[in-house]
Write a structure and sequence with these properties.
This protein is of the alpha+beta class. Helices cover 48% and strands 12% of the residues. Helix 2 crosses helix 14.
């Protein structure tokens, strides 16, 4: 999908960043000039490409404003974001992770601005299925005041090498049995069936992707939103089946050797180089896949009932922001048709793009499975959202699971942490 050439988009994005850097380091600003501080951690994909261009327009519309952008990392914001938002160095606007343990915790601590008045002013009219990721009551996601706004969607699916599938006579699997049969056939043919970053976020996503493939929305409401019957995560059947399956696949040789030590960037590079038939990964990889894959690739949903996914990361306005109105104006730009269409044509998963304005094949390729999941009401959110501090527990336990195959220990470690963090009735 591309109204503009992807190379042009990348060059434009680089030029924008260079322009911002120049304005923030060389321009001699008057003493009274406003300084607008912006952070985000997304990089090397359609989202920051689009945000950079919109930020340039915001600066053009406000010549009295000096824009200062800082590139953060997911790890910094996920692990220390609350402390940063509560400090004197808090930005005016930042990308922030959604979920009870991050945006929920920050909203409960009074660190985020209620965006409801801005939503009313600009008529954002966010669908409930999108708004819920930014809504929190007493730190719990799903309803209440609007503290953050996603400007794109994201989901986890299976990237597959069309050439390898065709060469080995494999059709897109639509059941888990067919998925395992395909991996067995690929293994027998000397092909690595599934690229796996066991030492990184992929192991967190893969376990959950398997768990929710067996789940339903009642389970999601309980696990994620704490509605209905409480889940005992130390014994839950869906999670145990997922952990058992991951170990089974690893022992069968469906992942590369020593998968527990592989990092996500390396796994993605290996897949892009054509060294594996499949990889479970997020839609944030689409832009890079389009430009770096050495083969024809496609995408399909993990077979089963539900799919890992949601609205994208949030833009939030810290309570300590000195330019809240300007921050809200920037969010409004990102939600406009102009930048939603731009995002889609840069390869992103836009929420409000005009279909007739989207010509980028990458966006069309990623939009079809996402549309299927949304139509089925099958988005299952992300595994680390329910309780604060859950992500590093899931990551370390998942890496250990791939290394030692000890499902009982995995269940006890992750389940006990979840159970202790879940709000008591």
């Amino acid at each position: 999908m591309k109204l503009i050439n992807k190379k042009v988009v990348r060059v434009l994005a680089v030029a924008v960043v260079a322009g911002l850097a120049t304005s923030s380091t060389i321009t001699s600003a008057p003493a009274a000039q406003k300084v607008f501080n912006v952070w985000w951690y997304s990089k090397d994909n359609a989202m920051p490409q689009t945000w950079n261009v919109a930020l340039k327009e915001l600066q053009k519309n406000h010549p009295d404003v000096k824009v200062v952008f800082q590139q953060k990392t997911f790890e910094v914001m996920n692990n220390t974001g609350a402390q940063l938002l509560n400090s004197n160095s808090a930005p005016d606007l930042t990308e922030y992770n959604k979920g009870n343990g991050t945006a929920g915790l920050a909203s409960k601590g009074g660190l985020l601005t209620d965006l409801t008045p801005y939503s009313n002013k600009y008529h954002w009219n966010l669908p409930s299925s999108i708004a819920l990721y930014g809504q929190y009551t007493n730190g719990l996601m799903g309803s209440g005041k609007l503290y953050g706004v996603p400007t794109y969607g994201e989901y986890v699916s299976v990237f597959y090498n069309k050439d390898i599938f065709a060469k080995n006579g494999i059709a897109i699997p639509t059941t888990m049995d067919a998925m395992e049969a395909a991996m067995a056939k690929l293994k027998a043919a000397g092909v690595v069936p599934m690229e796996m970053a066991g030492g990184d976020y992929q192991t967190v996503h893969n376990v959950y992707a398997l768990a929710v493939s067996k789940a339903n929305q009642t389970w999601i409401n309980s696990f994620q939103l704490f509605k209905g019957t409480a889940i005992d995560a130390t014994t839950d059947a869906n999670i145990k089946w997922a952990a058992d399956t991951l170990v089974k696949w690893n022992k069968a040789g469906y992942f590369e050797p020593n998968a527990s030590g592989v990092k996500a960037d390396d796994a993605v590079a290996e897949f892009q180089a054509g060294k594996a038939a499949m990889m479970i990964g997020g839609s944030w990889l689409d832009s890079g896949m389009e430009t770096k894959a050495t083969f024809a690739y496609g995408k399909f949903l993990v077979p089963g009932s539900l799919t890992v996914g949601s609205g994208g990361n949030l833009f939030v306005i810290p309570s300590k922001s000195k330019n809240k109105d300007l921050a809200a104006e920037f969010i409004n730009l990102l939600l406009s048709k102009k930048y939603q269409n731009y995002l889609a044509n840069a390869g992103g998963l836009a929420l409000f793009a005009d279909p007739e304005a989207v010509a980028n094949p990458a966006a069309q390729r990623t939009g079809i499975p996402f549309g299927v999941a949304v139509k089925k009401n099958a988005l299952a959110m992300y595994p680390d959202w329910p309780v604060p501090g859950y992500y590093p527990i899931l990551l370390s336990a998942g890496t250990k699971l791939l290394s030692d195959g000890d499902v009982a220990n995995y269940m006890q470690t992750t389940g006990a942490f979840y159970n202790s963090g879940r709000p008591k009735a």
